[in-house]
Specification:
The protein is of the alpha+beta class. The protein has helices at residues 21-28, 44-64, 77-83, 111-121, 167-187, 242-252, 265-269, 295-298, 321-331, 359-374, 388-398, 408-412, 431-439, and strands spanning 32-36, 39-42, 67-68, 74-76, 94-97, 103-106, 130-139, 154-164, 192-196, 207-213, 219-224, 257-259, 276-291, 301-303, 309-311, 313-319, 333-334, 337-338, 349-353, 379-382, 402-406, 415-420, 426-430. The two termini are 21 Å apart.
Length: 440
């Protein structure tokens, strides 16, 4: 992509409405634009990052055995009346009527709709377990949307829903999602700590929030330092291995971790002081087992091996991609801008032509740009006639992991400079060596 032809509306000044680092940097780098309170457009640079986040989420959901579908954003109020949640949900739900005066709503979540899909087609235990997920826009009319897309009214969510014959089977489905989430956040460059969450009237030990540590986190969290060194489940783990999944769950819940809402001061004080970790945290995922809460009122039953009908046991599993993007920025930035993990960076590299119009610089940059693009790399080529300082500031702000800098003096010697955005390390090498470094 040539920068001279790309839509990248950089802001030179810090937006006054931005309260936290990620909101400021997303606006300044031209990733998003606010359209109304808590509602944002994702501009080309932001859309590229969001798509890469979604792809990683999708790959790990598929790896765990979940199956993707797509459900509509507008839902009939009848389903919510059937489950008993329509009147109880509160003002966060946007309620509307269609031209036939039928009550509708803009979905804040999809338990009712996915239960309706399930009960319409699945009648036997032989079709279980089943986990259905989608990645979809949702709307919750937050009374105080803030922090950009960290807490917006319209947001993207990956929500998955598991269906099992028994609670024991449902716990295994829960453990599979638990492991899949650990892998997902690790691939996004984040260390997420699963913290026990309130299960409400359901009770039990199967509700966890996944929290990443960040200075600007919304809530205070308390945990044992061991979490920093726990091994992430491998790519080749067997999700059908019940004992293996339980072992992962047991390991990651073996030491203390709690948000301020669930904090037990006595238990935390029992940890040696050198091993205590107290910090701010951002919730990036939530998994929850809720048993027959929806299957009973909505009649979602299957015939069991005993020939009798049983209400299925369900769980839900959410990740907010539009929340994850700013969370990654909160965890990875410096005074100059964003530092993207390579897995979600909008571009793999940026080629900076220090003297556009100079035949030698143009030729060197074109060679690098063509070679990397042909090899399938996402490359941004700064072919503009901006000043050097502006080019460097833009490259640092948007956080592309590798900068390849082609200036007249270096190019005359057949060389370019390669800068690592994260470490700031610079290395001068031949043009071919730079290409090979990126392809390696």
């Amino acid at each position: 992509m040539r920068l001279s032809r790309y839509f990248l509306p950089i802001l030179k000044e810090n937006p006054k409405e931005a309260e936290i680092v990620s909101h400021r940097l997303m606006l300044r780098s031209g990733m998003i634009r606010q359209q109304s309170q808590g509602i944002y457009s994702w501009l080309p640079l932001g859309k590229r990052v969001l798509d890469k986040v979604n792809n990683i989420i999708r790959e790990e959901q598929n790896r765990s055995g979940a199956i993707e579908l797509s459900m509509p954003t507008l839902q009939s109020a009848e389903l919510w009346q059937e489950s008993g949640r329509y009147d109880a949900y509160g003002k966060e739900m946007l309620r509307i009527k269609d031209r036939q005066d039928r009550p509708m709503l803009y979905g804040p979540t999809n338990e009712e709709m996915v239960t309706d899909i399930f009960r319409s087609y699945v009648k036997s235990y032989k079709d279980l377990p089943l986990n259905l997920y989608h990645i979809q826009l949702k709307f919750r009319d937050e009374i105080r949307p803030r922090f950009g897309t960290m807490r917006s009214r319209e947001f993207l969510m990956k929500d998955a829903y598991s269906f099992d014959l028994t609670k024991e089977d449902a716990v295994h489905s829960y453990n599979k999602m638990f492991a899949a989430y650990l892998r997902t956040f690790d691939r996004l460059g984040l260390r997420a700590i699963p913290m026990r969450a309130d299960t409400g009237p359901i009770g039990g030990n199967h509700s966890h929030e996944f929290i990443i540590l960040a200075d600007t986190g919304e809530s205070e969290v308390f945990s044992h330092r061991d979490f920093v060194n726990f091994d992430i489940p491998a790519a080749d783990i067997d999700f059908d291995d019940v004992a293996g999944m339980q072992a992962i769950f047991d390991k990651w819940t073996s030491v203390y971790a709690a948000t301020s809402e669930m904090h037990d001061e006595t238990a935390f004080d029992a940890i040696p002081e050198s091993e205590r970790l107290s910090a701010r945290g951002i919730e990036v995922g939530h998994i929850f087992y809720f048993g027959t809460k929806y299957s009973e009122p909505m009649g979602a039953k299957v015939q069991g091996p005993d020939g009798k009908e049983h209400h299925v046991h369900m769980g839900s599993y959410g990740i907010g991609p539009t929340r994850l993007v700013p969370a990654i920025i909160e965890a990875s930035h410096d005074e100059n801008g964003i530092i993207w993990p390579a897995s979600v960076a909008p571009f793999d590299a940026i080629v900076i032509n220090m003297k556009a119009g100079d035949a030698a610089c143009d030729a060197a940059c074109e060679k690098i740009y063509a070679a990397l693009s042909k090899a399938g790399k996402d490359v941004l080529y700064d072919d503009t006639d901006d000043r050097a300082g502006t080019k460097f500031a833009t490259a640092d702000l948007i956080g592309v992991p590798v900068q390849i800098i082609a200036g007249p003096r270096a190019v005359a010697n057949g060389e370019v400079e390669v800068k690592d955005r994260k470490t700031g390390a610079r290395e001068t090498m031949t043009i071919d060596a730079a290409i090979n470094k990126l392809l390696g």
